[in-house]
Amino acid sequence: MNQVVINEIVIPVLVTIIGIILEIGRRQLRNYLGVRTELLDKQKQALQQSMDIERYNKDKQFIKDTVMTIEQLGKELDWEGSLKHSKVLDLVDGKTRLKDEEIYNIIKAAVAEINMHSKITVTQNAQKTSE
């Protein structure tokens, strides 16, 4: 009788309990690995975004520096605006990953900044001479 109880009740119950424990462990491990994979994916995306931002800022600064250089050369050599613009485009072409529209907007902003600084300088010089 004891042998029958062990064979028909205790062993199936133990096998079921062990199966449940293994299934719980498997699910926990799967959840842990899934969370870990998601975290790694998010870290990769954040790194890619920061690299893209850094690359954009480098390209933007390169264009601004080029505009400043060409503006200075244009003043020295008495170039017209369209010639200066074409020189900037020649120097910038293929050296950045920016779209043409972005390049154009950065050039416009850099020229506006230069013009603003030159107007401030002219105004300050005029005030000094009037004093």
Structure characterization notes:
The chain has 131 residues and is mainly α. It has one domain (2-130). It contains three helices and no strands. The model has no long low-confidence stretch (mean pLDDT 88).
Number of helices: 3
> How much strand content do the residues show?
under 5%
Give the averaged pLDDT, no decimals: 88
Q: Helix and strand string, N-terminal first?
A: HHH
Q: Termini separation (Å)?
A: 120 Å
Give the uncertain stretches in residue-range form. none
- Tell me the number of structural domains: 1
Give the % helix: over 70%
Helix/strand-derived class? mainly alpha
Radius of gyration: 35 Å
Q: What is the number of E strands?
A: 0
Gross morphology is rod-shaped
Topology:
Elements: H1 2-77, H2 81-92, H3 100-130
Helix pairs in contact: 1-2, 1-3
